[in-house]
TrEMBL record:
This is 60S ribosomal protein L37a. One of its GO terms (molecular function) is structural constituent of ribosome. Gene3D superfamilies: 2.20.25.30. It comes from the Eukaryota. The lineage of its organism: Eukaryota, Metazoa, Chordata, Craniata, Vertebrata. Belongs to the eukaryotic ribosomal protein eL43 family. GO terms for cellular component: cytosolic large ribosomal subunit. Keywords: Ribonucleoprotein, Ribosomal protein. GO terms for biological process: translation.
Length: 73
């Protein structure tokens, strides 16, 4: 039963449209495992298996942004 709920949760998250980090529109869709395509700006990027952004990717992006801000000061 729990595996069924986890599978349903994964399926829902992989079919959800996400916000594109390039054009800021909600057009990012999953094309294949880890491949995401924006229907608006036509960018194709690698991401997570079921979600566009993984938690580790978000952590790395925020660390890079923070380091760039420190460098500019």
């Amino acid at each position: 039963m729990i595996k069924d709920l986890e599978a349903k949760s994964d399926e829902i998250s992989q079919h959800t449209k996400y916000t594109c980090s390039f054009c800021e529109k909600t057009k990012m869709k999953r094309k294949a495992v880890g491949i995401w395509h924006c229907g608006s700006c036509m960018k194709t990027v690698a991401g997570g298996i079921w979600t566009y952004n993984t938690t580790s990717a978000v952590t790395v992006k925020s660390a890079i942004r923070r380091l760039k801000e420190l460098k500019d000061q």
